[in-house]
Amino acid sequence: MDLDLWTEKYRPPTLGGIIGQEQIIKSLVMFVENKAVPHCLFTGPPGTSKTTAAMAMAKDLFGDSYERNFMELNASDERGIDVVRNQIKNFARIMPSGNAPFKILVLDEADHLTTDAQHALRRTMESYSQSCRMILICNYSSRIIPPIQSRCAIFRFSRLDDDGIATRLKHIADLEKIKIHQTGIDAILYLTEGDMRAAINLLQAASSTGQQITDKIVYAISGRASPETVKTMITDARDGRYNDALQALRSLIYHEGVSPVDLVKQMHKEIQTLNLPNQLQMDILEQIAEVEFRIGEGSNGEIQLTALLAHVGLGSGSNE
Ligand SMILES: Nc1ncnc2c1ncn2[C@@H]1O[C@H](COP(=O)(O)OP(=O)(O)OP(=O)(O)O)[C@@H](O)[C@H]1O
Ligand SMILES: [Mg+2]
To answer: Which of 116-120, 227-231, 242-246 has the lowest mean pLDDT?
Structure first.
């Protein structure tokens, strides 16, 4: 069995290989064609091609001299001002080698840099902009100080759409010679919500069972409940079959190993697909927020969730 992480093995090496994010990729391709790259800020949720796009752009731009003109620093390891004073300055001030117009420094997870470090960075970005362009990557752009944002072209990456992820999963499954059923793909899409990395990781984990991948396998391996089970549990509670609902809840927590935190999130998602009367739905949503908070604070998940189901039943008036 191969031990590589599929997310790395199948990371698209060039901009052309990146699925989705069309507008952003178009701009980056233009940068490469014109050999003119501004300082950039890539921001967006996890697993949506930010790091991939930065590396692919540098590879497309530099070709053979990629190794010499590109550096990636992960700001979540070293977050203080020293990293700006030493590593970043040392890389930025040395002129590019080969016939590269400038070097590229990728600062991944830049939102983890301390505010002091970010202030030091703004000067460096200006002083050495002749020799080095920076690509800052973060999940939340609001954590980057405004003067840095104003020095960058900002690209907001969105969650990838289901079609794009499904195509990629099928492609990888073909190359890895594993069989995946449509229900398996749908389950992965449901659980990963536009995060390509999570989707590929789940595919790899599910493939280790050696069987054709179905929704059952996906839910079992990820320790999550199927949407149908959650829906049935809620409708049972709503319609007064409280014992069935409780049994389903216990089985999910104790036999299938679903964590109460995940379960409350799934209930939140499914409630909104059940076409409940407005008042009831609002009431339950409010209760879900309360229960989620309490579980997060460490209270007993089973007790909180049984109370939530009781609330669903009482609110619907099925016991009156
Ligand atoms: N658009 C895409 N097309 C194909 N594969 C992708 C795409 N986006 C992501 N991937 C896959 O997902 C993995 C993770 O993507 P990437 O490292 O670019 O995410 P990220 O946006 O930097 O996330 P994070 O914010 O968590 O660092 C890649 O190694 C690649 O295998
Ligand atoms: Mg990244």
So the answer is: 116-120
Distance from residue 245's CA to the centre of ligand 1 (Å): 39
Class of the CATH domain delimited by 6-156:
alpha beta
Is the CB–ligand 1 distance for residue 288 below 6 Å?
A: no
Proximal ligand: closest to the CA of 107: 2
State which fold the 227-316 domain adopts.
Answer: Zinc Finger, Delta Prime; domain 3 (1.20.272)
Is 196 near ligand 1, meaning CB less than 6 Å away? yes
Give the ligand whose atoms come closest to the C-alpha of residue 198: 1
Is ligand 1 within 6 A of the CB of residue 224?
no
pTM: 0.88
CATH topology of domain 162-222: Helicase, Ruva Protein; domain 3 (1.10.8)
What's the 155 CA to ligand 2 centre distance in angstroms? 14
Question: Nearest residue CA, atom 19 of ligand 1?
Answer: 47
Reported as a single tens digit per residue, the pLDDT across 29-53 is 999 999 999 999 999 999 999 999 9
In percent, the amount of the chain with pLDDT more than 70 equals 97
Where in the chain are the domains?
A: 6-156, 162-222, 227-316
Q: What's residue 318's pLDDT? A: 66
- Minimal-distance CA residue to ligand 1 atom 17: 51
Separation of 276 CA from ligand 2 center, angstroms?
A: 39
Instruction: Reply yes or no on whether the pLDDT at 214 is more than 90.
Output: yes
Question: What atom of ligand 1 comes closest to residue 139's alpha carbon?
Answer: 25
Mean pLDDT calculated for residue range 223-238: 94
**Helix (H), strand (E), coil (C) string for the chain:** CCCCCHHHHCCCCCHHHCCCCHHHHHHHHHHHHHCCCCCEEEECCCCCCHHHHHHHHHHHHHHHHHHHHEEEEECCCCCCHHHHHHHHHHHHHCCCCCCCCCEEEEEECHHHCCHHHHHHHHHHHHHCCCCEEEEEEECCHHHCCHHHHHHCEEEECCCCCHHHHHHHHHHHHHHCCCCECHHHHHHHHHHHCCCHHHHHHHHHHHHCCCCCECHHHHHHHHCCCCHHHHHHHHHHHHCCCHHHHHHHHHHHHHHCCCCHHHHHHHHHHHHCCCCCCHHHHHHHHHHHHHHHHHHHCCCCHHHHHHHHHHHHHHHHCCCC
